[in-house]
Design goal:
Layout: E1 25-34, E2 45-50, E3 62-64, E4 70-76, E5 78-86, E6 92-98, E7 101-102, E8 108-110, E9 115-124, E10 129-135, E11 146-151, H1 154-157, E12 165-168, E13 175-179, E14 184-191, H2 202-208, E15 213-217, E16 222-228
Parallel strand pairs: 1-9, 10-16
Antiparallel strand pairs: 1-4, 2-3, 2-5, 5-8, 6-7, 6-9, 10-13, 11-12, 11-14, 14-15
Length: 231
């Protein structure tokens, strides 16, 4: 069982907090595969996480798939995203559906003590990859930068724990590589430095989009992006 309550602390002692616990909800479903079914499914682990990153982490259930591809997540509370914690080599999450409705990026509400059935978690072996390098105005190869890659659609920036925005630093040869982005239209820009995780700020992305290079990432595609520094 688990329980939580909102709490504000403003410099004074707080007493009399009452927590009521309850059993979390249960979600049942099955795996689907866009490609040849892997030989073993029991190594695939399903996880859930809160839609609100600032909210409670209680009820973040996890479970391994069974031999037949079915799974059961327990202890779920509130709105949750379903993710694949460990996929077979070469496989990545494609979609999560609940009774036919796509909830990959929006999540679903799970209520204490209730069982939700009809989850379908689809994996694909057509993973995407984006690689490239960045040049200065004189054509020289840069080796110290942060590349930010983000969806052309601003609505994707504001999704909970969005899959559509990422950033990375280059290797020692000045080349970068990003894998497993969803298929779609993207913008890529290089800046001097952005702390890890802060590249998802919508205001930052809005400022960067005019300097970014546009490209399309098809399912299973490997795209090379070579461009000037956007800093």
């Amino acid at each position: 069982e688990s329980g939580s309550t909102p709490l504000s602390v403003a410099g004074e002692d707080v007493s009399g907090i009452l927590l009521t616990t309850s059993k979390g909800g249960t979600a049942t479903g099955a795996l689907a595969f866009d490609g040849p079914r892997p030989a073993s499914l029991t190594s695939i682990r399903l996880t859930s996480m809160p839609v609100d990153a600032d909210g409670s982490t209680l009820g973040a259930g996890a479970a391994s798939a069974k031999d037949d591809g079915t799974f059961e997540l327990k202890g779920l509370t509130g709105p949750r995203l379903i993710r694949v914690g460990s996929a077979p080599p070469g496989w990545t999450l494609k979609s999560v559906k609940l009774n036919g409705t796509d909830i990959t990026d929006t999540g679903a509400e799970f209520k204490a003590g209730e069982t939700t059935s009809g989850l379908e978690v689809e994996l694909t072996n057509k993973a995407t990859a984006v690689n490239g390098s960045v040049t200065a105005s004189d054509g020289s190869l840069l080796k110290d930068y942060t590349v930010v890659i983000f969806s052309e659609t601003p609505d994707h920036w504001r999704l909970p724990m969005t899959r559509w925005v990422t950033g990375t630093r280059p290797d020692q040869d000045g080349r970068f590589k990003v894998q497993q982005l969803p298929a779609g239209n993207y913008l890529a820009v290089a800046v001097d430095y952005v702390p890890q995780g802060e590249w998802g700020d919508s205001a930052l992305l809005d400022r960067l989009k005019s300097k970014a290079k546009r490209f399309t990432l098809d399912e299973g595609a490997i795209v090379s992006v070579i461009g000037p520094n956007g800093a």
